[in-house]
Amino acid sequence: MQRKTSSKERVFSIELKSKRNLKNITLTNGSSDSVLVEGTIGELVQATFAEGIILEVIGKDGILRVDLGEDEIKKASKQNGSEAKNQ
Questions:
Q1: Fewer Cβ atoms within 10 A, N terminus or C terminus of the chain?
Q2: Using CA atoms, how far apart are residues 28 and 8, in angstroms rounded to an integer?
Q3: Is the CB of residue 47 less than 8 Å from the CB of residue 58?
């Protein structure tokens, strides 16, 4: 998975060992542009940051990767915590 050049864009990938682990894919053909991908990566095996910039959640049945660094999660948590206090 390659990181996008824009710092605001987030890339993700879902790799499943079998299509049986895929529960639902919905691509609407109506007025909504929404897309839904649902499945299972199985029991959690490991969750780490690959190369420091990709959150990788590994399950027995697949892997979820998100272009998101640990520092960004900490920064967002701090921002959300201060916003919650101000409400």
A1: C
A2: 25
A3: yes
CA-to-CA distance for 14 and 22, rounded, in angstroms?
A: 10
Token readout for 60 is 């027995």
The residue behind tokens 């959150």 is: 55
Q: Residue 2: which pLDDT band, with cuts at 50, 70 and 90?
A: low
Kindly report, residue by residue over 19-76, the tens digit of the pLDDT: 999 999 998 777 678 889 999 999 999 999 988 789 999 999 999 999 988 888 888 8
CA–centroid distance for 64 within its chain: 6
- Spatial contact of 26 and 35, defined as CB atoms under 8 Å apart: yes
> What single letter denotes the amino acid at residue 38?
E
Other residues' Cβ atoms within 10 Å of the Cβ of residue 42: 14
Token pair 């920064």: residue: 75
